[in-house]
Amino acid sequence: MAAISMRLPVARKAVGPSAPRGGEKHLVAPGDTITTDTGYMRGHGTYVDEEKLIASVAGAVERVNKLVCVRALKTRYNGEVGDIVVGRITEVQQKRWKVETNSRLDSVLLLSSMNLPGGELRRRSAEDELAMRDYLQEGDLISAEVQSVFSDGAVSLHTRSLKYGKLGQGVLVQVSPSLVKRQKTHFHDLPCGASVILGNNGFIWIYPTPEQKDEEAGGFTTNLEPVPLSDREVISRLRNCVVALVTQKLMLFDTSILYCYEASLPHQIKDILKPEVMEEIVLETRQRLLDLEG
Amino acid sequence: MASVVLSEAEKLYIVHGVQEDLRVDGRGCEDYRCAEVETDVVSNTSGSARVKLGHTDILVGVKAEMGTPKLEKPDEGYLEFFVDCSANATPEFEGRGGEELGTEIANTLYRVFSSETSVDLKSLCINPREHCWVLYVDVLLLECGGNLFDAISIAVKAALFNTRIPKVRVLEDEEGSKEIELSDDPYDCIRLNVDDVPCIVTLSKIGYRHVVDATLQEEACCLASLLISVTSKGALTSMKKVGKGSLDPESIFEMMETGKRVGKSLHVALQKILDEEESLGTSRQKVGFLG
Predict the structure, then answer these.
(1) Matching SMART domains, A to Z (chain A) (predicted)?
(2) Cα–Cα distance for residue pair A196/A208, rounded to 1 Å
(3) Which of A201, B41, B62, B167 is most buried (most C-beta within 10 Å)?
(4) How would residue A22 be classed by pLDDT, with cut points 50, 70 and 90?
(5) A129 vs chain B: nearest CA distance in angstroms?
(6) Buried b / exposed e along A79-92 (16+ C-beta atoms within 10 A)
(7) Which of A9, A226, A229 sits opposite B38 (nearest CB)?
(8) What is the pLDDT of residue A218?
(9) Residue B241 falls within a domain, yes or no?
(10) Is B69 helix (H, G, I), strand (E, B) or coil?
(11) Does a structural domain hold residue B30?
(12) Chain A partners within 8 Å of B261 (Cβ)
């Protein structure tokens, strides 16, 4: 039966800061003075005005010896070599694809950086160029790794491993890149029954765990069979948990998502997005994470 | 309309999910997203409302001005709709990009309110053939998150509920010329009866089933939708089909039945929240835009 819940808006409560680990962070807003000491070199996010170093973005101040920079909290993705990203193909060009990764410029995936089916290693011919659209079309999602960063900040991707490639059925959640914690691995098979890819660019991909690892496919053949209902429930619940964590500005990593999933089990999947349930679940998650640390 | 690009596999996942009555965010086919409604957010209007349905954010302002009645309806006032698709919602609306969508929505609103029973227009008349109240309803799209028409119609109903039109008295001089006097008391006003104001329910056909309150991703998988406007008693006042796909007459009938059912519960929920807000009176903490 139809369920409609309407409510009056409630002013957002400021959540108290969790116990500071590793010293207080120096938070600044645009226009705040960072320091009046002229001995520092200015890095990203700062500018000099009347012998004062002033922040131009809202974020935390980072100091490395003599270099002062401000790392913004809400920003577009800035690529770094070795990052895992999930991107969407926007254009198919002559020998490359343009991929949207929530950064200032579209990323580039060269045809030579892409795995051929069967894992063969050979020089790409003109036939490969013409068959590009058979591999990846506009709108397709891929997982890739950052190979290099151009001087203008554009990122060059590669899928030269069997774990990268075109993504099949699943759900994409877009979050701010600063909320994805840097870890050793970003591909997780969660024990609750689904797998998740935490892209450094803020694209989170949740998908059903494949039964067997298709090694020879190399990530090109997509499984188009209907996903069973039990897997769907797990995926929807995970998706709502990720949205809840992001709304409450918690860092995303496999443990936090798993704890949030476990905390949400008593509630129905669609109730997780209600503000009061969201707060309750995230509070419990935060408590468990603090217990884990301390 | 703002749209997202999806891969074929993602669309397939959504279609199969709808088939099994479990959408991507866990809702059933007839569930709405959590909605936030607040009235009286703009101070220099006669009535205003803001509705947030998921990622869709709509602001409606109603201004009551005096004008001359239309020639064919000399003893009634009327409503004028204007929809502004702000570039805040999506970059596609920059410059004149949002004009087409804006006129489409405005025309739909005119059609929805064209029924004589929706709003009591006779109460808006001051002097037959000479003076009447014209309600200018301005809709502002702040964010596009799918299901625009429903959110707009909810916001329009809430704004009309909140509208306060000052009471006027018509004085006649010895020469016969009429003078209109506005009462001095700012709280002396007439309210509109919104019991019969219809709300739009959009039913999007995805695969073999239809869903209510589609998100942007679901709208990308849907080929045809049916917009119906339902009053609180379950009566249909208008119907419109959008989309490039075709609909079977059987499906249209099923969608109409679903729409009537969902529409009735929508009205009940909305009226409850409006009454709750009204009962809080002056002690209500206004959240507005900086909450």
Answers:
(1) S1 (SM00316)
(2) 9
(3) A201
(4) low
(5) 21
(6) beeebbbbbbbeee
(7) A9
(8) 47
(9) yes
(10) coil
(11) yes
(12) 2
Domain at B123, CATH number: 3.30.230.70
Q: Radius of gyration (Cα) for chain B, nearest Å?
A: 21
Calpha distance B121→B113 (Å, rounded):
11
- Please give the structure tokens belonging to residue A270: 């669609």
In words, the CATH class of domain A28-72 is mainly beta
Give all strands of the β-sheet with A33-35 in edge-to-edge order.
A33-35, A52-55, A46-49
Question: Cβ B36–A233 below 8 Å, yes or no?
Answer: no
Binary contact (B10, A141; C-beta < 8 A): yes
Asked whether residue B202 is domain-assigned, the answer is: yes
* Three-state secondary structure call for residue A116: coil
Neighbours of A162 (CB within 10 A): 15
Tell me the ipTM for this assembly. Answer: 0.89
Q: Dig out the tokens for B259 from the structure.
A: 């729409």
Tell me if B265 and A4 make a contact (CB, 8 A cut-off): yes
Q: Is A268 on the interface with B (CB under 8 A)?
A: yes
DSSP-assigned letters across all residues of A15-38: PPPPPPSSS---EE-TT-EEE--T
Q: For residue range B167-205, what is the model confidence (pLDDT) as tens digits?
A: 888 887 777 677 778 887 778 888 888 999 999 999 999
User: CB of B62 within 8 A of CB of B45?
Assistant: yes
Which residues fall within 8 angstroms of residue A290, CB to CB, at 6 or more apart? A18, A19
Q: How far A133 CA sits from the closest chain B CA (Å)?
A: 13
More confident residue, B1 or B243: B243
At B15, phi and psi to the nearest 5?
-65, -45
Domain that holds residue B212: 9-280
Please state the domain extents for chain A: 28-72
